[in-house]
């Protein structure tokens, strides 16, 4: 049995999030994979299924800046696989910023994803984790 039977990973379509999703599914976790690129998530799920891994990838396309969408994704994962044992709120982006002219609006999307996405993820998982006294 996997150390974390049900895992939710945001930013799971590429990079660190994708690799964590693969690793955890190969160890037997049911991994809810969230990202904006649903096609990449479907390919990830198919890759794990083709390997015959003991776990699985459950694609949950969504945008971490959408608070209600994050709650719906977490609830959907919990309904399909069980309570979320581990949430890895990994979604992030980097946009190079020019010094001159300095435009503070250039930071808005970065803050919305990198900070707001974590807050929205916590909002989606903390009530259930607190209620059952477990989860990370």
Provide a descriptive summary of the structure in words.
49% of the residues lie in helices and 13% in strands. Strands 3-2-1-4 form a four-stranded parallel β-sheet, with helices on both faces. The two termini are 18 Å apart. Helix 3 (67-81) packs parallel to helix 4 (108-132). It is of the alpha/beta class and 136 residues long.
Attribute tags:
alpha/beta; four-stranded parallel beta sheet; 4 helices; 49% helix
Secondary-structure topology with pairs:
Elements: E1 6-10, H1 15-26, E2 30-34, H2 38-51, E3 56-59, H3 67-81, E4 86-89, H4 108-132
Parallel strand pairs: 1-2, 1-4, 2-3
Helix pairs in contact: 3-4
Radius of gyration: 16 Å
Approximate helicity band: 40-55%
Gross morphology is globular
- Compressed to H and E, one letter per element, the order equals EHEHEHEH
Distance between the termini: 18 Å
Number of separate helices: 4
Brief synopsis:
With 136 residues, the protein is α/β, with parallel strands linked by helices.
